[in-house]
Design a protein that fits this description.
Blueprint (H helix, E strand, L loop, with lengths): L2 E11 L4 E11 L6 H11 L5 E13 L37 E6 L1 H4 L11 E5 L34 E5 L7 E2 L13 E5 L17 E2 L1 H5 L1
Parallel strand pairs: 6-8, 7-9
Antiparallel strand pairs: 1-2, 1-3, 4-5
Length: 219
Amino acid sequence: MDKRVKFDFGIYFTNGGSIKGEDFRLDILGDDIPDKELSDFIVEDLRLLMVGETKILNKEILTEPHKRKPINEKIGNGVFIDLSHTIEHGLVTYKGLPAPLICDYLGRENSKQYYTEGTEFHIGKTEMVTNTGTYIDCPFHKFENGKDLSEVGLDCFTDLNAIVIRVPYSETLEITEEHFKNHEIRNRAVLIHTGWDSNWNTEKYYENHPYLTEGAAKF
């Protein structure tokens, strides 16, 4: 049997004010839906910005025929964007750490001795520290009992709704919460484009770079 959810909601904005709704009904897949999914749908469907706290109240699951497509039905037509720099032999990412070694462990010419005539193969070799190229600092990097990369799901890094906020380093190196306040960043991957990537793999890259303030990180 089809399921629908009936609920009230309250949405409060970071710049003041709020909106409320009563006795909303939406079609869902399955027998229940988390409050967070309902909040996210309302915010996205109404195209709301600068949303702070959201509340779902008096939620009730009803057995009723669907009126339209369930709001939690997944649609897999997204675009993936690779944010990684290319790792090359000798690339220095962080001054003081060794550059990666990328070479042949066994080249094609030397491999011929292991197989019959006319057969060859290649085995590459890579040695590098984990802080190389475009990398992720997982909790374990700072905290002994924090999760390492093997314990963090790929869903934390892929198939994310994202927003790009541009803060040119030519204007400021300090990125504060004020740069975020006029943007909707709830449940989004926030990509801050400073233009500092123009200094990638140069001496200038390592010092006097843009940074987040504590307030921006907590926002």
